[in-house]
Structure formats: structure tokens, C-alpha cells
Design goal:
heterodimer, A: alpha/beta, Rossmann fold, five-stranded parallel beta sheet, B: alpha/beta, Pyruvate-ferredoxin Oxidoreductase, domain 3, 6 strands, about 20% strand, globular, binds thiamine diphosphate, binds iron/sulfur cluster
Chain lengths: ~600, ~190
């Protein structure tokens, strides 16, 4: 049966067909749907782990114990998991272990666009790059087989256009893979220096064997076209090449680490000119060039952002046309699209009406505080009209950054400084930062935005929600206790819908030269039912437009008075609290 | 048969149902045995921001992403987004636009204004334009949320996919309690083109 399937769902399906038993992940676009889908399959244990490092460790433990296991994460998640990864590459596995890295060229939903193929090379583990959903499924299965055949974790590297594109997939059946026996093997799994030295030799031997395998695997294949022009490519770039340069000879690499040196050498020898087409880093190109082989790529193609067929045609098209103009897809050369010569107002993503984060950022801006921020829906607090965030680096960075600022500029600076972090982010990578503030006698105030979910990636559960990935009830951790346990004595909980009190507490805590935590607690507006509706009483509105500073999408100004879209309004009441004329009131009665 | 690949770009505002429309379109096309690819974006873009879904089908499709200036159809769920995505449409392409205005945040906060006369401008630049009051028709069908189905109905009249395939794709893609409303909205769109 063939089905139109999301790349991520195809990975999940492939893992299931390969008999995966344990899967772990922390959410992150564009990887989230893999675990969401695996949690729906019978015979698979799937969890949201606290962070990516733990996810990889859980998967590794399962693999060492004899079960096929998978860990999935976005590209920056691998940074978090890399400590485990680098040494797992030494220990190897027992049953198959696959690490899915979903990279995000063009930063559709990320803070950088790092190319994680470099991690595969760094760790000396195989890297597979599918080019559509069918390949995503097949390569996931191959990854498990390779993992076991070569006793290594295997990286399956996706990019946004693979993970979040849909294409046809032929479904298969689940292969029942029995648990492998578990035997204690300290020299393999206890990485003391003496054992590590021995295992490093194994890594080198393995790389030689994998290189030999790379020469013969059907994952790498040549599609002959005009023998004068060759293109070496992988992943989504393959699709762009086929569309942009239909007549050229293509060496499509499915296994991009380690590379098939002889196959590549022969391919280059067989063509007159050879190009490498790859998004982001010149990962293939640099290795191939280092063997003294003549390939060109990044001199014509960008190292930044994602490609599409036109980028390929524009980049290497002119060089290809010098050999044979008929090799180019004519229709991509010209663009006769209709054009409008006007500037359009942007439509950036915005906090939802009633978002519990809004009030906090409104206060932070009003108090003119320096805000060491973090990542989540609340990062939107950095955008107009709230403009209340100074830094956002990576998950959990807010507290270390705040402490560093205080150490650089003195305690006085901390009297105008806060760190702001979401609940899921706090549990992911924030606890250590807070502990560092306590331990090293920082005096910063930390605001934890507890909206009871991991909202940004689509509302996944976390240890603070009391539910697991399969929606089973579990221990709900108590943030106040955690924070107290980390040594914070000043802990307060506020309702971010109550601006007056929230502002009082924030002002007081920031002014106090002691570390403190304020938990702003209120469920994400997309999960909450709503608390009614508000409306503007036109005759009282003074046209001051103060309420617009909230940036609520339900609120606008019609030239004379503020107007509330009652369909969108969730009744948070913030606008009513800041209106100096008392012109906004709660709707009572039937249509409330 | 489509040896030539058909490229359709759906655009709108997060929450308008472009993703579901893309899914139904791809299923309808796949049911005829064509190769199909769809490219969506998930994540941050969905918080009320602009959204784009690329759908391509034919005998063999490589890129899931439509190259600017090559879309055969641009289906815009909102006027401003129609303008934003116009560079995707090819010169002879068809524009289907919902006559609906959803002001973005910079307009709501007064930092910028919603441009006037967009439909006239679009008409002047694009040869084939179908303007649809999809919101009105969706409400007529029973739900303001069925705007996507109305627009699919309009699009369907331009494509060579039989009506049964659409109905089948809709029925299998939406929850059963909304099936009737969605099918009705699709029909209203379908019938609006004569
Ligand atoms: C290492 C890493 N993993 C995952 C992500 C993706 N991501 C960023 S913030 C975030 C969690 C947001 O949840 P929370 O802190 O509760 O804030 P909310 O979105 O709910 O406001 C996720 C999953 C990332 N940027 N970096
Ligand atoms: S999804 Fe929830 S947390 Fe995110 S912006 Fe909307 S209301 Fe706020
Ligand atoms: S009460 Fe005011 S601020 Fe809150 S959602 Fe409604 S319009 Fe927006």
C-alpha cells in the first residue's frame, strides 16, 4: 500500500518496521513528529525525555541492553547530546542504535543552521541522508542493520525539506527482532582511559570497514546522463539537481560518511567537469578536494540558507551550459512572475490572544529591565511592540548569561536585570544554570514562565505536566520544590493575568540583592478554555492607544477607538487593566 | 496524464487550514496514481504568521518545493498573502484569492497600514484571477472554518481530478462530524465557477 507520508512519519514507520523497541526524544522543529508518531505504534516504548542528552542515553542504554533503539532531535539537540555521542562512538552498541538529526537550513524554526554531518565525521559514525519520504523509511531500516553490522551508532540526517515534506511511501510489515542477549563487557562499555584507548583503535578499524562498505552499498549510486558533466550530491539537493539539470550524470550519495573514495574517483575520472551540490557546509566538497580530485561547488553555490532548483541552475548552470546548454531545465532560467511594486506589511508570528507570557513582557518593558532570555513561544517577547528581551542564545542560557552580566558589571547591574525562561526549557537545561547562580552568589531574579506545556513545538508534555508522551499519568514534578531544592530561598508564584501584583513582585525581587525565582503560572491560552470576553465601551475610549502596546492580535484601533475582536479574545483582561480610561470591560451575560 | 508537473502554492495565515487543504489535494492527486510531493512548514510559523504549502504532482516529481515564477496555481486564503506569494506564480498562472482581509500585527498596532486596492492591483497584474468570498460561502455551509474547502472547490474546477476523488479525499481527511459541512463548502466552491 502506498501512502502520502510526512518524512518524519516515514522515519517512525521505518523504525517500527525495523523492530524498534525503545525511542526517546526531546521535541524540536523539525524533528518532533517522529516520537509523536512512534508513540502511536504498538510494541514501541516512546518517551519525551527531559533533554536530548538524556534521550540519547536512554536509547543507548536500551541498545546496550539488547533492544533496537532510536533517539530523535533537532540539529541543536545534538549539541546537547554530543557528550554522550562522542563516547558512544567508542563503545559501540549491542542492538541497533539510530540517532536522527533534523537539521534546519534557512532557520525556519531555529537559532542557527549548523550542518550536523560534521558531527558524524567528528564522532566517526556513519551518516545517511535520505532524499524523500520513501528513502527516509528505507534508510531508517538500513541504519539499524548497519548499526548492528558495524557495532556503531548511526546518524540519519534529515533537513526540514525532508522531515516536513510529504511524498509517497510503500508500507511494509514489522520485522520481529528479538532482544539480543545482554552480557556484561566492561572493556567495551566502561570507558576508563585504558579501555578507551583500545576502543579508539576499534573506531579506526571500523572506519576502514565502513569505507569499504561505502564503495559497494546501493545507497550510493550513479545515474548516468551526459558524461561530460558530473554532479555529486545528497539529500534534498539531489531532487533540486534532478529538476534543474535533468541531463547531467549524478552520483547520488545516500551514505555521506564515510565517503566511497574510489567510487568518487572513478566518477570524477569518467566526466569532464564535476560539481558538488550540497546545502550549508562544503562537507563533501572539502573531503573530495583533500584527495586532490577536481571538484567545484561552493564557489558557485551559497553556504547560507537552503537551495531550490533555481539556486542550482543559477549557481552552476552557466558552467554546465558552457559544456552543453541542453542539460539545463529551460523553464527555470526565466522568471516572468507578475510583480507588485509595493511594500507589504510583514506578518510575523505573534503571541496568541490571551497568551500568559504577554503580561510578563509588558511589565519587563515598562520597568525597562535588561532581560537575559531563553527559547520558546516567549521569545516572541523580543519582537515589537513588547521589545523586552536582550539575549537569546540557546536553551537554558538565560541564567548563565544573567550571572555573567552581573559578574561583569557588578551587583548594581543586577538590580535592573532578570533572566526569563519557560517551564519546559527550565527542566531541559535551566536547573544547572540556576544552581550556578546560587552556588556562585549571584543575586539575579529568575522568572519561570510556567504555561504547563512545551508550547512552541506543539504542546508536548514534560515532567511538570504530569503526563508522559503516551498521555499516561506520571509524577508531576513541583517547580517550587525543585527551585527550593536548588538553594533558592525567595520563591513566589504569580498569576501573569494579574498585572498589578506581578509587577509589584517583580519590582521587589529585582531590587533585593539575593537570588530569587518568580514562577508566573497560567496555562497556555491554546490549551485553556478562555475566561470570557472583553469589549471596548466606545464613548469612554480616549484614543490613547495604550492597549496596543500589548500586541494582542484581538485588539486594534479603527482610527477613533480601540476595538476588540470578540471571536479571538480569550478574556485575559490585560487590556482592561492597562486602559487608563477604564473603557474596556468584561462582557457579561449571554454572549460572554 | 501530467507528464508536465502541476505546481500549486497554497498560502494564508496560520490557523486558516492551508495544511489540511494541501493534504486533501495531495491525496486526491495520489488516488489517480500520480507522483505527489508536498512541502509544509511547521513550528513557529503557525503562531499567526504567514504560511505556505507547496503541492506538486505529475508522472514524476523531484523537488517538493516550488521554484519562484513556476507555480501553475496560487491559492491565497488572504489578500495580503496573495500579494506576498505572487512571485511564485508563473506569468500565465491562475490566481485564486479569497476576498478576506486579516490584518497582521504591525497593522493592528498601528506600526503599518493594510494597503488599499490590493484586488485591483492583482487583477491588473495577473491575467487569470478568480476572486472568491470564501468566508461567506463557508458560513453558508455551516462553519467559518471551512474556508479551505471552499477554495479547494474552486481550485478543483481548474484541475483534471474527478469530483469523486476530491470527495473521497475530503472524507478520509476530516473528522466524521465535520464531513458534511466540509463537503458542502467544497460544493459551494465548485459551483461558484461556471
Ligand atoms: C537543544 C534544543 N532543543 C530543542 C529546541 C526547540 N525548542 C526551543 S524552546 C523549546 C521549548 C519551549 O517550551 P517552554 O520553555 O515551556 O516555552 P513555551 O514555548 O511553552 O512558551 C523547544 C522544544 C531548541 N531550540 N534547542
Ligand atoms: S501557544 Fe500558548 S504559549 Fe505559545 S504564544 Fe500561544 S498562548 Fe502563548
Ligand atoms: S482581554 Fe484584551 S488583551 Fe486579553 S485577549 Fe481579550 S483583547 Fe486581548
Amino acid at each position: 500500500m502506498r501512502e502520502v507520508m510526512l518524512g518524519n512519519h516515514a522515519v517512525a514507520r521505518g523504525a517500527w518496521e525495523a523492530g524498534v523497541r525503545v525511542a526517546a526524544a526531546y521535541p524540536g522543529t523539525p524533528s518532533t513528529e517522529i516520537i509523536e508518531a512512534l508513540a502511536q505504534y504498538p510494541d514501541v516504548y516512546a518517551e519525551w525525555s527531559v533533554n536530548e542528552k538524556v534521550a540519547l542515553e536512554v536509547a543507548a542504554g536500551a541498545a546496550i541492553a539488547g533492544a533496537r533503539a532510536l533517539a530523535a532531535m533537532k540539529h541543536v539537540g545534538v549539541n546537547v547530546a554530543s557528550d554522550a555521542l562522542m563516547t558512544l562512538a567508542y563503545t559501540g552498541i549491542n542492538a541497533g542504535l539510530v540517532l536522527v538529526s533534523a537539521d534546519d537550513p534557512n532557520l525556519y524554526s531555529s537559532q542557527n543552521e549548523q550542518d550536523n554531518r560534521l558531527y558524524a565525521r567528528f564522532a566517526q559514525i556513519p551518516c545517511l541522508e535520505p532524499a524523500d519520504s520513501q528513502e527516509a523509511k528505507e534508510m531508517t531500516k538500513v541504519a539499524f542493520a548497519l548499526s548492528e553490522a558495524f557495532d556503531t551508532p548511526v546518524m540519519l540526517r534529515l533537513t526540514t525539506r525532508i522531515a516536513h515534506s510529504q511524498s509517497l511511501v510503500e508500507l511494509g510489515e514489522r520485522e520481529e527482532v528479538p532482544l539480543k542477549p545482554y552480557t556484561k563487557a566492561p572493556s567495551k562499555y566502561v570507558m576508563l582511559p585504558a579501555f578507551g584507548r583500545e576502543r579508539h583503535k576499534v573506531v579506526e578499524e571500523r572506519r576502514a570497514k565502513l569505507s569499504a562498505y561505502a564503495e559497494i552499498t546501493p545507497l550510493n549510486r550513479v545515474e548516468w546522463g551526459d558524461r561530460r558533466v558530473g554532479v555529486i550530491t545528497s539529500g534534498i539537493s539531489y531532487q533540486y539537481v534532478k529538476e534543474a539539470l535533468p541531463g547531467v550524470s549524478v552520483l547520488k550519495l545516500g551514505l555521506t560518511y564515510p565517503l566511497p573514495k574510489n567510487l568518487i574517483r572513478q566518477f570524477i575520472a569518467a566526466v569532464d567537469v564535476c560539481f558538488v551540490v550540497e546545502e550549508l557546509e562544503p562537507f563533501l566538497e572539502e573531503q573530495i578536494s583533500s584527495w586532490g580530485l577536481p571538484v567545484r561547488g561552493k564557489e558557485f553555490l551559497p553556504r547560507i540558507g537552503e537551495f531550490d532548483p533555481r539556486v542550482v541552475v543559477k549557481g552552476i548552470g552557466p558552467k554546465v551550459a558552457e559544456v552543453n546548454p541542453a542539460l539545463l531545465n529551460e523553464s527555470l532560467l526565466h522568471d516572468n512572475s507578475p510583480s507588485l511594486n509595493i511594500t507589504l506589511p510583514a506578518r510575523p508570528p505573534v503571541m496568541c490572544p490571551g497568551c500568559p507570557h504577554r503580561g510578563v513582557f509588558y511589565i519587563l518593558r515598562k520597568l525597562k529591565l535588561t532581560v537575559a532570555g531563553d527559547i520558546g513561544c516567549y521569545t516572541l517577547g523580543a519582537s515589537p511592540p513588547l521589545n523586552a528581551m536582550d539575549t537569546c542564545i540557546c536553551m537554558g542560557a538565560s541564567m548563565g548569561v544573567a550571572l555573567g552580566m552581573e559578574k561583569a558589571r557588578g551587583q548594581e547591574f543586577s538590580r535592573g536585570l532578570v533572566a526569563v525562561i519557560g517551564d519546559s526549557t527550565f527542566l531541559h537545561a535551566g536547573m544547572t544554570g540556576l544552581l550556578d547562580i546560587v552556588y556562585n552568589q549571584g543575586t539575579t531574579t529568575v522568572i519561570i514562565l510556567d504555561n504547563g506545556t512545551t508550547a512552541m513545538t506543539g504542546h508536548q508534555d514534560h515532567p511538570g505536566t504530569g503526563y508522559t508522551a503516551s498521555r499516561a499519568l506520571t509524577t508531576k514534578i513541583d517547580l517550587e520544590q525543585v527551585v527550593r531544592g536548588l538553594g533558592i530561598r525567595r520563591v513566589q508564584v504569580v498569576d501573569p493575568y494579574d498585572l498589578t501584583r506581578a509587577q509589584e513582585v517583580i519590582s521587589a525581587e529585582v531590587a533585593t540583592p539575593e537570588p530569587s525565582v518568580i514562577i508566573a503560572r497560567r496555562l497556555c491560552a491554546l490549551l485553556a478554555k478562555g475566561t470570557g470576553k472583553y469589549r471596548v465601551v466606545g464613548m469612554y475610549c480616549r484614543s490613547c492607544q495604550c492597549c496596543l502596546d500589548l500586541g494582542c492580535p484581538a485588539l486594534t484601533f479603527n482610527g477613533e477607538e480601540a476595538v476588540i475582536d470578540e471571536i479571538q479574545c480569550t478574556g485575559c483582561g490585560l487590556c482592561a487593566q492597562i486602559c487608563p480610561a477604564g473603557a474596556i470591560e468584561k462582557v457579561v451575560g449571554e454572549n460572554a | 496524464m501530467h507528464d508536465q508537473v502541476i505546481s500549486i502554492l497554497l498560502t494564508g495565515v496560520g490557523g486558516q487550514g492551508t495544511v489540511l487543504a494541501g493534504r486533501i489535494l495531495s491525496r486526491a492527486a495520489a488516488s489517480l496514481g500520480w507522483d505527489v510531493k508536498v512541502a509544509d512548514l511547521h513550528g513557529m510559523a503557525q503562531r499567526g504568521g504567514s504560511v505556505i504549502t507547496h503541492v506538486r504532482f505529475g508522472t514524476k516529481v523531484y523537488s517538493p518545493v516550488i521554484t519562484q515564477g513556476t507555480a501553475d496555481y496560487l491559492v491565497a486564503f488572504e489578500k495580503l498573502e496573495a500579494c506576498r506569494c505572487l512571485p511564485f506564480l508563473k506569468g500565465e498562472g491562475v490566481l485564486i484569492v479569497n476576498d478576506q482581509e486579516i490584518p497582521p500585527l504591525p497593522v493592528l498596532t498601528g506600526a503599518s497600514s493594510y494597503p488599499e486596492g490590493l484586488l485591483e492591483m492583482l487583477r491588473a497584474r495577473v491575467k487569470k484571477v478568480a476572486i472568491v468570498d470564501a468566508l461567506k460561502k463557508a458560513k453558508e455551509a455551516g462553519s467559518a472554518k471551512a474556508v479551505n474547502m471552499v477554495l479547494l472547490g474552486v481550485l478543483a474546477r481548474h484541475l483534471s481530478i474527478p469530483r469523486e476523488c476530491w470527495e473521497e479525499a475530503i472524507s478520509t481527511s476530516v473528522k466524521s462530524e465535520f464531513r458534511e459541512i466540509n463537503l458542502k463548502a467544497f460544493t459551494l466552491g465548485w459551483e461558484s465557477i461556471t
